[in-house]
Amino acid sequence: MDSKKFSTILFIIFLVPGLPKDFLIYVAGLTPINPLRFFGILLVSRFPWLLASVSIGSNLHYGNYMSTIIISLIALVSFILGILSILEAFEQNYFLAAIFIITAALIDRYDGRIARFLDISSDLGKELDSLADLVSFGVAPALLVFIKYNFLNLGYIGIVGGCFLLSYIMSGSYRLAKYNVSQFDGIFTGVPITVAGSIIALFSLTTPSNSISILLSIVLFALLAYLMVSKFKLKKI
């Protein structure tokens, strides 16, 4: 089995809760899979379920069963699209990977409205929505660019680019956390991660894989990372 197919299968297995992960980690360690790729697969596939289980378990403890189900389903759609984007990026289907991110952005545009219309807005909904946003507009776009432009084999440029990719994800995480503890008055402070992820997806769709695009992608990640944590004001449309 080639490395790409094995990575995809490994990602799906790690994503499924309840399977014996320690044995799988040992088996994967005996394979020729790149250690950095393996660490990325492990981190991306396990971290979301850890956060989701804590959030959902807390809400169930207080008996909010119906809101938990509806909110979880709404967030799950965006989350799944982010996961599909990551899988397609590993399979080098970059067009589909970008399309999944853009589709998730269109869905994210209305999930809050649906929750308010059904009167099921809650702190849990905000946390799950943030989790889905981090995967679909933080991790997925970063991995799409990282894999498409082959940062792993670019030497020092790849290391610098990887640092900016990580700073983009960290800035997105900070932006989401800050939004969750703030009162929203119709004006965003800092560019939303949904907008940032969509810009990166569109960039990937419209640029070839060459040295100029690689440099532009690094600049773009640095710029978006800054804009997400800046004081830049953006009115919600």
CATH superfamily: CDP-alcohol phosphotransferase transmembrane (TM) domain
Q: How many domain units?
A: 1
**What characterizes the major β-sheet?**
2 strands, antiparallel
The helix/strand class is mainly alpha
Dominant shape:
globular
Strand segment count: 2
What is the percent of helical residues? Answer: over 70%
Overall mean pLDDT score? Answer: 77
Rg over C-alpha atoms, rounded to the nearest angstrom: 18 Å
Number of helices: 9
Note the beta-strand portion.
under 5%
Q: Judging by the overall fold, what is the CATH architecture?
A: Up-down Bundle
CATH structural fold name: Four Helix Bundle (Hemerythrin (Met), subunit A)
Strand order of the largest sheet: 1-2
**What is the terminal-to-terminal distance?**
48 Å
Low-confidence stretches: none
Q: Would you list the SSEs in sequence order as H and E? A: HHHHHHHEHHE
InterPro entries: CDP-OH_P_trans, CDP-OH_PTrfase_TM_dom, CDP_ALCOHOL_P_TRANSF_CS, VTT_dom
Keywords: Membrane, Transferase, Transmembrane, Transmembrane helix
GO biological process, one term: phospholipid biosynthetic process
Family: Belongs to the CDP-alcohol phosphatidyltransferase class-I family.
Structure described in brief:
This protein is mostly helical.
Tell me about this structure.
The chain has helices spanning 3-15, 21-29, 35-61, 65-90, 94-117, 123-148, 156-180, 193-206, 211-229; strands at residues 187-189, 233-235. The protein has a single domain, classed as CDP-alcohol phosphotransferase transmembrane (TM) domain (Four Helix Bundle (Hemerythrin (Met), subunit A)), CATH 1.20.120.1760. The radius of gyration is 18 Å and the shape is globular. It is an all-alpha fold and 237 residues long. The chain crosses the membrane at residues 68-87, 93-110, 131-149, 155-174, 186-205, 211-229. Keywords: Membrane, Transferase, Transmembrane, Transmembrane helix. This is CDP-alcohol phosphatidyltransferase family protein.
